[in-house]
Amino acid sequence: MKHVFFLFFVLSMVSCQISSEESDKTAIINIMKSQETAWSNHDLEGFMSGYWRSDALKFYGSSGLTSGWEQTLENYKKAYPTKDHTGTLKFKVNAITKISTTAYYVMGEYHLQRPVGNANGVFMIIFEKINGAWKIVADMSC
């Protein structure tokens, strides 16, 4: 009987971990869908709500390394001043991988359809659960 109970306990733990990981991934995908919508509506502040609002946020792109939420937002505002520049954003997620109990990295592609010329590239972002919410703490896009 002890062995049956132990087996049930182990299977329950595995099931909970899989369920938890799937729910984490769903939450992360939902944030990214909200970002697509905000960006496509030229709502850069709404897009940035997916990011950790901290001076410790890191963004690495073609212009080099940027530190901080405010500076990242300012860079977006300069590079994408109008709806014609933001266009319509679509993400293609190629992998979501658990790093730890509170962090995942996401690798994928972004596609911008816009009147000033389409833009496509790749990204790797790191989500961390901070105060119960998933936030992007690092982003490398090119």
How would you characterize this protein structure?
The protein has 142 residues and is an alpha+beta fold. It has one domain (2-141): Nuclear Transport Factor 2, Chain: A (Roll), CATH 3.10.450. It has helices at residues 2-40, 44-48, 69-79, 83-86, and strands at 58-61, 64-67, 88-100, 103-113, 119-130, 133-141. It has a 6-stranded mixed beta sheet, covered by helices on one side. A hairpin with a 2-residue loop joins strand 3 and strand 4 (103-113). The model is unreliable at 4-15 (pLDDT under 50).
Order of helices and strands: HHEEHHEEEE
Architecture per CATH nomenclature, i.e. the level-2 architecture: Roll
Low-pLDDT stretches are: 4-15
Task: Give me the number of helical elements.
Answer: 4
Arrangement of strands in the largest sheet: 2-1-6-5-4-3
Helix content: 40-55%
Terminal CA distance reads 57 Å
**Percentage of β-strand residues:** 35-45%
* Count of distinct structural domains: 1
SS-based class? alpha+beta
What is the CATH topology? Answer: Nuclear Transport Factor 2, Chain: A
Would you tell me the overall average pLDDT? 91
- Largest sheet: number of strands, sense, barrel closure: 6 strands, mixed
Q: Please provide the count of β strands.
A: 6
Rg computed from alpha carbons, rounded to a whole number of angstroms: 18 Å
Shape verdict? globular
Query: What's the CATH class, please?
Result: Alpha Beta
